[in-house]
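Running log. JK asked me to keep both predictions on one page so they can be read side by side. First protein, sequence followed by its tokens:
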Amino acid sequence: QVPLVESGGGSVQVGDSLRLSCSAPGRTFSSQTVAWFRQTRLQDREIVAVLSWKYDFVYYGDSVKGRFTISKDNAKNIVYLQMDGLKPEDTAVYYCAGKSQWTRVLRHEAYEFWGQGTQVTVSS
């Protein structure tokens, strides 16, 4: 399977913004569920946001509600994660993941394909 490709990570200051991108070389996101997870060395992968490409359902983890926005570009076949009001606790490796059904969308083990991850570091 062709993996997903994330980009847009980096090192920023508290309160700054970043936009992550997730592309799918060789495949289409059509009808897929696409999610962003994040992971630190001390914690398992945590759901950040999920999008149903076909139905436009979205879900946000409690820790990012009101600050992060997941969106898609149909023409470019890209999923974005706009991160505003970044906090030090947002520091993590962010992963894009995809699956075919809108089921068990909060469970990282339910996802079929993944990107390599992109580091986000927020300094105070």
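And the second, directly underneath as requested:
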Amino acid sequence: QVQLVESGGGLVQAGGSLRLSCAFSGRTFSNYAMGWFRQTAGMEREFVGSISQNGMTTYYSDSVKDRFDISRDNAKNTVYLEMSSLKPEDTAVYYCAATDNFLPVVAASNYNYWGQGTQVTVSS
């Protein structure tokens, strides 16, 4: 069974940077595209971005494009979300997810496995 564990969340000032990590285990990591989502209380889970199985293709939501960067290290079974120029509206619980589909995969329902989430809070 696939397990995903996010880390790296925390409190950061507006304009700052933060890097989230997501460790994957249980299956062959390179067989899965990976996505990042975020969710605030009372809202639906929002697509942030995704990366293909080989790391060559990425997609981002318009709200984070040019500020966030997704990468992966298939040797370490880890996917990263590098966030910069953070804004208070980026405050959310961030989740990583795995899918055996091929990109683009934007809908949360198309992801097979999810992590437990990590809180990111951006202060103004």
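Observation for JK regarding the second prediction: DSSP finds no helices and eleven strands in the chain.
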